[in-house]
Design a protein that fits this description.
elongated; alpha+beta; four-stranded antiparallel sheet; two-stranded antiparallel sheet
């Protein structure tokens, strides 16, 4: 477990520092002063200053932070007076610069996830959405699917990798599915309704097998690396969709403890196959987590980047700022709610070990 915790800390730190570096780069480009950029948390092990920014590597290898000048509008100076900020502070920057700076963090996570995905497909290849076997009596057989067919679209969405077919099957609760199928160079459409399995308590299309393997070379690494990242974007949105559709339980949520358990399970499965397999498995998890963090941060929830983004977009439309005090109260309320949710999720993660 110690190795898994270390792996988790490395993955988490890379993803969070990448996120904060996105904020940092666009802030500097936009003329916003960055007071401090931290790698890790806790007491500083190493500090240096470059320009107006203090860089620090801290003791605990958990995440990082990018601290802009004027992030706290209620901050006071040494005499207890309210601190004043110039035009290079985040508080007084043009709304377009603030929107770009906030948006840059999640965008950095998407870019990081894309880079990870390209490395993965360069070494492992990808799975094409080819039907390997059709289950007898299944919805797929009744719709006329055959082994060797290639699935091009599901419900109008383009399909590039076989795991997308599995994903659409997994999140289906008996709704009809329209598929575009390619067979012998010709395309046609079918509609099928997945069948319910009482044994597994889920619906199945009726396709089995791994799809077909493609070794990615040259430009295919960029093409299928993008498709790999796109798959994780779809998986995250489909998961969020299940919440809004009511197909959600507390056990479906995981916090840091649950993620450590996932890292440990993945590590134990990959370890017998050697270090390269372990590294690629961890990179696959990092791709998921980076893209997931980017999307979740864009949700319009106070205290997240998406909450700030919404406030600044409303400001741009109204042509008038929300008062710093009101923005602070909204952010504080969101932070309290997120902390409460994290406590509940972590408690639930810990109790799973004793069930």
């Amino acid at each position: 477990m110690a190795v898994s915790i270390l792996l988790f800390l490395i993955i988490f730190s890379v993803i969070v520092v990448g996120h904060e570096f996105g904020h940092y780069m666009i802030a500097r480009r936009s003329g916003i002063r960055v007071n401090e950029f931290d790698i890790g948390m806790g007491p500083a092990l190493l500090k240096w200053k470059r320009g107006e920014t203090l860089f620090a590597i801290r003791l605990l290898p958990v995440g990082g932070a990018c601290i802009f000048d004027g992030m706290d509008p209620t901050e006071t100076d040494g005499d207890g007076e309210k601190k004043t900020y110039d035009e290079h502070s985040f508080l007084n920057a043009p709304v377009g610069a603030r929107i770009a700076t906030v948006l840059a963090g999640p965008c950095a996570n998407f870019i990081l996830g894309l880079v990870f995905a390209m490395i993965i497909v360069a070494f492992t290849g990808t799975d094409l959405p080819t039907v390997y076997q059709v289950v007898d009596g299944s919805a797929a057989q009744e719709a006329g699917l055959e082994a060797g067919d290639t699935i091009r679209k599901i419900n109008g969405a383009n399909i590039h990798v076989y795991r997308e077919v599995q994903l659409y099957s997994l999140v289906n609760y008996g709704e009809p599915m329209t598929m575009t199928i390619e067979r012998d160079g010709k395309e046609f459409s079918v509609t099928l309704t997945p069948k319910y399995s009482e044994d597994d308590d889920r619906y199945y299309i009726g396709i089995s097998g791994p799809g077909s393997y493609l070794e990615c070379k040259g430009l295919q690494v960029f093409q299928y690396g993008f498709y790999e990242a796109e798959y994780w974007v779809r998986a995250t949105f489909q998961s969020l969709g299940l919440i809004f559709r009511g197909h959600f339980q507390l056990d479906d949520l995981s916090g840091p403890v649950g993620i450590v358990k996932t890292v440990d399970d993945t590590y134990q499965e990959a370890k017998p196959y050697g270090l390269p397999t372990v590294l690629l498995s961890m990179l696959n998890l990092a791709t998921l987590l980076s893209i997931n963090l980017g999307i979740m941060n864009l949700l319009p929830i106070p205290a997240l980047d998406g909450g700030r983004l919404l406030i600044y977009i409303i400001e741009a439309i109204r042509g008038r700022k929300l008062s710093p005090e009101k923005e602070g109260y909204i952010t504080l309320a969101g932070a309290v709610a997120l902390i409460a949710l994290m406590v509940v999720v972590c408690f639930n993660d810990v109790t799973k070990f004793f069930r």
